[in-house]
Specification:
single chain; two-stranded antiparallel sheet; alpha/beta; Helicase, Ruva Protein, domain 3; 8-stranded mixed beta sheet; 2 domains
């Protein structure tokens, strides 16, 4: 019979051989999901024997991870901010660095008075749902060109009890939108098109290209958004965009050329300038 600790060791070694970045954590998550055991059980009872069915289920999940399918797709969820969101192949898996965009948004919004937020390219809904969870008087609109992505965001909003404050709409950035917003957020596609194939297999093979491809220089989405921003940004309103490595100054230049004043970029924990904020210039 196979024990929990023996299976964990086997799965970890298989993931290491496959080049997975976090084999120890992923092995635990796969065993929890496949064998139906909790983290405490693995730690407290490592020599517990597993059934053949449990071992087979873990093996099936491990094969998927060995093929470099993202752990978030295998489990169907990803931890973000203070909750978990459902994740599928139709949405970008939310990254830890994107929490910096949420932090910026929360600082920019009033705590005790109403505000409207627009999230362009809403994807799973992780960003705007985190903002709404922190600002109970805020309402939001999330826009995405992908109806499949909107279905994921809609399910996440309902599960988190935030669907009454979030409208979701299919669309091409701001086209056809009416009304103005106190804050416009976006984590748009920003990978230069010819660099996508060279990304980690989890991203290049499995994440939606629509959420990655930023055009020839990675800045195409920012140009589109900034060209339309004046129509949806309320007087005194602000914007906050996530940007890729090395893109912050280019995005600031684009924003300033479009008539906006920008602030010093915000760095993520790796020291990468990750979020650009700004407002309409005086």
């Amino acid at each position: 019979m196979t024990t929990l600790v023996a299976l964990w060791t086997e799965v970890r070694k298989r993931l290491e051989a496959a080049g997975v970045d976090s084999p120890v954590v992923d092995a635990r998550l796969l065993i929890e999901a496949g064998a139906g055991v909790g983290r405490i059980e693995i730690i407290a009872d490592p020599r517990r024997e597993l059934t053949e069915a449990q071992v087979a289920a873990v093996d099936a999940l491990t094969r998927r991870r060995e093929a470099r399918e993202p752990i978030s797709h295998i489990l169907g969820k990803k931890a973000f901010w203070t909750f978990e969101v459902a994740v599928t192949r139709d949405v970008l898996t939310p990254r830890p660095e994107t929490e910096l965009l949420v932090e910026a948004a929360v600082r920019l919004l009033p705590k005790d008075s109403p505000a409207r937020v627009l999230d362009l390219g809403v994807g799973s809904g992780a960003i705007i749902l985190a903002v709404l969870a922190e600002r109970p008087f805020t309402t939001g609109l999330g826009v995405d060109v992908s109806e499949a992505a909107l279905a994921v965001a809609r399910a996440n909003a309902e599960r988190l009890g935030l669907s009454d404050r979030l409208e979701l709409r299919q669309g091409d950035w701001t086209e056809g939108l009416e009304g103005q917003f106190h804050l416009v957020l976006s984590n748009p596609p920003y990978i230069p098109a010819d660099e996508i194939a060279g990304l980690q297999p989890e991203v290049a093979r499995h994440e939606p290209r629509l959420a990655l491809d930023g055009g020839a220089d990675g800045l195409a989405a920012y140009r589109r958004i900034l060209s339309q921003l004046d129509r949806v940004l309320a007087p005194g309103g602000t914007f906050a965009f996530e940007v890729g490595r090395g893109q912050a100054e280019s995005v600031r230049t684009l924003a300033e050329a479009a008539g906006y004043a920008t602030d010093a970029p915000l760095d993520d924990i790796a020291g990468v300038a990750r979020v650009v904020t700004g407002h309409r210039a005086a």
